[in-house]
Structure prediction request, 121 residues.
Amino acid sequence: MNKVRTIEIVDQFIDNLPEEVQEITVELRKIILDSSPYLKEEFKWSMPNYTYNGLVCYIQPAKTHVNLGFHRGIELKNKEWGHFLQGTGKLMRHIQINSLQDIQKDIFSSLVKSAVALNHD
Prediction:
């Protein structure tokens, strides 16, 4: 992961998470940033968000799990990995990760790349 692309407020946020949630968050952050050189890390709505020509995805830690969310997730729902995405809102969808073993790097990376492509216009 290119350290230049991370921001200090997100580093501090992650440092204050419970250990298991912190490990999941760090791995998701790495997958997101490694998936696209276009993504910019920001801290919005009390969580890490990743943008490129608008909102792309976010990491939302909770007490016992972490959500990898997609701001335009409804548009990804129709792709082959749509069954991974949860949620009932108008646009956003997420994947709930309960442990490091739940992380499917290739699938998550493909989802991030597809989410970036939605904003490529």
